[in-house]
Amino acid sequence: MGKFGKGILGPFSGKVGTVIGAVREGEWTMRSLPSKSSKPATAAQLAQRAAFGLMIGFFRPIGQVLKAGFRNRKRGQSANNAAMQYNLNEAIVGVYPDLSLDYSKITLSRGPLLEPPVMDVSAAVDAQLDFSWLNNAGTGLGNTNGTDKVTIVVYNTVKDRFVVVQDSVARSTQSYALSLPPDFSGDSVDIWVFFVSADGKHASDSVYLGDMDIA
Question: How far is CA 113 from the centre of its chain?
């Protein structure tokens, strides 16, 4: 892999001919395309590809959530790659070809902010979810603050659809009512919550609140 500046073509991103251009740690890089192998894929390779496909399919609609939740990642690593690396080791269950996602083990955020010591959710009428938590800001631990904003991710496992709330109420508010689409009524959803600092620089680990039937 080589680094280059403006050059004759200028910096580029993506595939051009037999090379790929990209930005890595703030510098433009260029590498050759891998050569295709004539060997059939092994069982391990097929299993890995299937696991990648499951995770990529799940994460694709919530890229902005991962960008906020995995901000405290390694230098030069994208949020998507950080999320993939962590969750592939934790959230894929089963034996190929019968692989699936364990939603209870999916992590949407990792960071130094404190999780609330208590976080509850209940289903109300008319496809509404009521969230409540304890404000643990001011404990002197980390960068946790009452101004941290809550992020809520609801995944409808029946319709394969997400509802996402970002930059909403502050940690100090201690409650939030989320109205879901009316057609979610009667479906089951999985729910995650985490907090992001007001300046967007830090996040807490995400908390999985379980699956719930929507009234």
Answer: 16
